[in-house]
Amino acid sequence: MIAFVLQRVLQAVAVMLTVALVAFSLFRFVGDPVINMVGQDTPEEERIRIREQLALDKPVVVQYFRFVQQIVTGNFGTSLRTGIPIGQLMAERLPATLELAIAGGIFALAIGMPMGVYTGLYPRSGLSRTFLSISLIGVSLPTFLIGILLILLFSVVLGWLPSFGRGDVVHLGFWSTGLLTASGWQSIIMPAITLGMFQLALIMRLVRAEMLEVLRTDYIKFARARGLSNRAIHFGHALRNTLIPVITIVGLQLGALIAFSIITESVFQWPGMGLLFLQAVQFADIPVMAIYLVLIGFLFVLINLVVDLLYYVVDPRLRVDVSAARGG
Amino acid sequence: MATDRSNVPLLEVSNLRVEFATRRGPLVAIDDISFSIAPGEVLGVVGESGAGKSLTGTAIIGLLEPPGGITAGEIRLAGRRIDNLPHDEMRKIRGKEIGAIFQDPLTSLNPLYRVSEQLIETIRTHLPMDASQARARALTLLQEVGIPGAAERLDHYPHQFSGGMRQRVVIALALAAEPKLIVADEPTTALDVSIQAQIISLLKRLCREHGTAVMLITHDMGVIAETADRVAVMYAGRIAEIGPVQDVVKRPLHPYTTGLMGAIPAIGHDVHALTQIDGSMPRLDSIPRGCAFNPRCTKVFDRCRVERPDPIPQGRTAVACWLYDGAGR
Lengths: 328, 329
Description:
heterodimer; A: mainly alpha; MetI-like fold; two-stranded antiparallel sheet; 13 helices; B: alpha/beta; 11 helices
């Protein structure tokens, strides 16, 4: 177990170093950063001074390790556009994005799982066919279109929900949350649905396919032959066996929710990291883009690590059992 | 039909017909079969793959799945009709009164649950016990099926057991609520030859001790000869011959049974070639008119190609063959 965790952590570090390399290479692609930072009429001595200060005169490898070292020590640099330290910018934006992603994920799971189980258990029923048709829409409609349609219906026509922003925010130490105010809840509903719609369809179809598969297995037939109740068979025996692939996908998709909330955030002007990133792209704010990349990479790696550990909880076959003697 | 141990049969199947609905009309998989099993009796059911052995077993435990279903006939357990019970009533009979053992012990157990959990779950579904009583019973059952170190292995997962041990666990599960009948569908086919004998003798001993009747479905005549009291030979969805095992093995009546017995190699006798039945069993959609065996039969005559024979009593045996009809020739 410890060896397994250690191995996964080492892998995670390797992945993060690679991500950092990609992020670092962003700086090299856009020309001389010093020219971007200072005006044309800055004297040459001044430029050399800045270059030395930023260690740009050192070999690339040294610069890379300086970059990694800065990130590890929490020094993320400064935004070129606003002059605000990036750490501070991210800390303001991260809670918004995480809350949105988690709300979207919970929405997708809470609706998608039961729908998947139902369609798996009763594949022929009319309701199942309806669910499947709806999920097709969920998969094929682009996110921004769903968002705009929701805004049109609930904000413009009905006027029930706000069309943009995060509502009133409460600050709890470093974390700012919109989940403690009524306007915050109203504001998160539509972005969360928009963000979670694709995942919902995906989870539903996955759970359905897995349920159909598991219900055909011998141990389900044997469980029926033992006279267990339908509830015990469906939810105890069948559902648990579908969880491994579901956990994998949900884990990966949670990462995707965070990374690709960019579109949803721009549709709803949600003050999260995605919006920050879009603004950074428009202004070629390279340090912000680089740190965003590293941060998203970190979240992906972290989620994958958690998923790997969850497998252990669900599937006993993965637990290395030293005392397992095999009898004839 | 002969029920040689008791006058009240435990299981009585009469005129059972199982069909599969297909786009081109119904396919008859089991065609009008009748037999009974007495309390404590072991009935062997043999036949080639596709003869309808497993399907008969599945029909008895009420687990036929659409498009398959019983379209005619009755199944009675201790006098009570069970083939038309509502789902929930039938569920209470499964496991409690009729246990089942399937072919592959490797896949019969849920890999994610401890053996103890699966046993206790089954016990508590059928018997009024609390958790600790059920656990004690689970332990007793594991000891009974001969799992060494049962106390320690109770909380192991299925993957920690070998194939033979897993089949013992499956037997313990089938016996958990003391059913009166066990439908054992090829219980040893997936196991090593050396383990097969152990499992069969274990099953035989346990059922004798508990007075449990067994419907033993297999294609292994050797297992039948050793274990069964009576044997039913199935061919193309019908019973060709049914009777006491000594009679059927020593003096087979139906030409098909004769062929089957001829195909068993005898140890100690030099045989150059085993008898072979020419041809193969017909598919369900092309069962010939008259006796289903007639195209392959060595003793076929005109009547066999026209009329379908029903079982005709011959001593303690009943055989579906026109050779034994008084008015036959």
